[in-house]
Amino acid sequence: MEYTSQLRVRYAHTDAMGIVYHGNYYEYFEAARVELMRHAGLNYTELVEAGYYMPLIESHCEYKKPAKFDDLLDITCKMVYDGALRVKLLYKIHCNGILICTGHTVHVFTTVAENKIVKPPKLFLDYFKESA
Amino acid sequence: MEYTSQLRVRYAHTDAMGIVYHGNYYEYFEAARVELMRHAGLNYTELVEAGYYMPLIESHCEYKKPAKFDDLLDITCKMVYDGALRVKLLYKIHCNGILICTGHTVHVFTTVAENKIVKPPKLFLDYFKESA
Amino acid sequence: MEYTSQLRVRYAHTDAMGIVYHGNYYEYFEAARVELMRHAGLNYTELVEAGYYMPLIESHCEYKKPAKFDDLLDITCKMVYDGALRVKLLYKIHCNGILICTGHTVHVFTTVAENKIVKPPKLFLDYFKESA
Amino acid sequence: MEYTSQLRVRYAHTDAMGIVYHGNYYEYFEAARVELMRHAGLNYTELVEAGYYMPLIESHCEYKKPAKFDDLLDITCKMVYDGALRVKLLYKIHCNGILICTGHTVHVFTTVAENKIVKPPKLFLDYFKESA
After folding, report:
1. Which end of chain D has a smaller Cβ tally under 10 Å, C or N?
2. Residues B92-103: what's their mean pLDDT?
3. Using one digit for the tens of pLDDT, what is the confidence trace for C73-112?
4. Across chain C, what does the average pLDDT equal?
5. Does B22 sit within 8 Å of C23, measured CB to CB?
6. Which chains share 3+ C-beta pairs under 8 angstroms with A?
């Protein structure tokens, strides 16, 4: 389950070094994660309507080359799920074929109602199996 | 009802021109608005717990001089309320006595439950009268 | 000189009211402004390489209806230039045909080298005339 | 070399789950890092004026409990330097004694002029030795 989406760097995301502020790559990871899920047929809003959130318990990024304003980034996002409570997503961002950064996020599922960690819901598992 | 609070510019808020990105001043206005209300004895979280939000219906900023990374900003926030549905807040940001920008925001009160515009709640009016 | 571009609301841009944080619309205005200029054949990076910035001196937004996570927004951006020092851009954001907000920004041109306000450079005027 | 600073969560940093958006903790880490350096007598702006940047090559965060709007966070930042090219900073964020998250960032030094990775400059080493 892997998908590559694109986005363009906004001026708002650059910093005084003239490059994308390191923390903003996590927003790009989010955009890629949402597109991967949409591509698999599972909108994050459906998951929320079904009563589940997918909060992060870990985020990580290694910066190789800086991205700049107006750069068109290719973000490859891959979901790894081994049947446990956690879902891992791996990211690679390229710009014109040059590797900008790699990273990952780890998520759990919680109930919207009680904010309790639960097993991945059937809604998620069904889509994941079909798409894997 | 006026109050001046301080905050320091983070690198995250600068852009590739080496100055604070224009959109970020609205976050500084928010910080000053929250501090003004706290100073008057009214925490925004109390208002939410009482069932009200204070969403914006207008925001405006005029930029005079740029602020930069690590600048310590003085933000003066003044609340103007004429008894109608709307509350207006006026802002002035200075850095070392130099005017950086001026602006305003206009807010209404809505119910958390039904997202309906309502008159300013008693909780707000009481604090406003005492502080004005 | 008018152009409509699209963008999708990221989770990062929502706030605890479950809607897009008011300050983030200015980032959407920026995205639309850059696309309008690109559509006219004028990349903002070219302008910078030619030695000019286009900083804001004013920003304004009126909020009609909230946008939410994953909403696909249509942003119409129109440039108005009357031959003076200032350039005005007007914005309208719709979601599924519903008006979300309207706003404007006012810009001047400054030199990258000396940070001095100057007349709109020929590079800008040429593209503007062709596209108008 | 360790220092604890405080900051308050702004509404702008919350998301539709009603908690601080995960990516924003990196901005809080930055604020704590800058205050640690200031406490040691080394302003980041001095470092830039001396011709050096301190870009990140890695960032990492593990989320334990969510922080919310208006929470007052204590951020402990510790600098670890073993004499090599890289500087590591460790972070712990608490709210009312409860651990919110832990994380780290890894930095190198680059020249502003040529964007080349260089050894930590004397300016940095002198302050680090005095403060360690």
Report:
1. C
2. 98
3. 999 999 999 888 999 999 999 999 999 999 999 999 999 9
4. 95
5. no
6. B, C, D
Q: In this structure, what token pair is assigned to residue D86?
A: 């890289």
Quick check: B83 pLDDT over 90?
no
Q: How far is CA B13 from CA A3, B112, C104, in A?
A: 31, 30, 21
Q: What is the three-state SS of C54-69?
A: CCEEEEEEEECCCCCC
Residue type, A52: Y
Confidence at B73, pLDDT banded by 50, 70, 90? very high
Give this prediction's pTM: 0.96
C 23-82 → B contacts, CB under 8 A: 23-24, 26-27, 30, 53, 55-63, 66
From D95, D51, D52, select the one nearest D72 (Cα to Cα). D95
Alpha-carbon distance values, D54 to A45, B110, D30, D50, D118 (Å): 39, 45, 11, 12, 10
Contact B54, C65 (CB under 8 A): no
Strand partners, A95: A73, A98
- The confidence score (pLDDT) of residue D51 equals 96
* Average pLDDT taken over every residue of chain B: 95
Please name the residues between 4 and 23 in chain B that touch chain D, using a CB distance below 8 Å: 8, 10-12
* Minimum distance, in Å, between the CA of residue A22 and any CA atom of chain D: 7
Q: Give the Cβ contact number of residue C46 at 10 Å.
A: 16
User: Among D20, D18, C92, C27, which Cα is nearest to B53's?
Assistant: D18
| Confidence bin at C59 (pLDDT 50/70/90) | very high
Q: A70-116, pLDDT tens digit by residue?
A: 999 999 999 999 888 999 999 999 999 999 999 999 999 999 999 89
Cβ atoms < 10 Å from Cβ of D19: 22
Q: Which of D65, D66, D68, D42 is nearest to D54 (CA)?
A: D42
Which pair of tokens denotes residue B4?
Answer: 């001046």
Beta bridge partners of C63: C101
Closest CA to A123 of A37, A59, A64, A58: A37
D131 has a pLDDT exceeding 80: no
Residues 6+ apart with CB under 8 A from A18: A68, A69, B16
- Give the tens place of pLDDT for each residue, B1-41: 899 999 999 999 999 999 999 999 999 999 999 999 999 99
d(CA B62, CA C60): 9
CB-CB: which of D19, D23, D57 is closest to A23? D23
Is the Cα torsion angle B57, B62, B67, B71 positive or negative in sign?
A: negative
Residue B43 has pLDDT above 70, yes or no: yes
Kindly tell me the burial class for residue B132, based on how many C-beta atoms sit within 10 Å of its own C-beta (0-12, 13-18, 19 or more).
exposed
What lies within 8 Å, CB to CB, of A9 at 6+ separation is A20, A67, A68, A69, A70, A71, A73
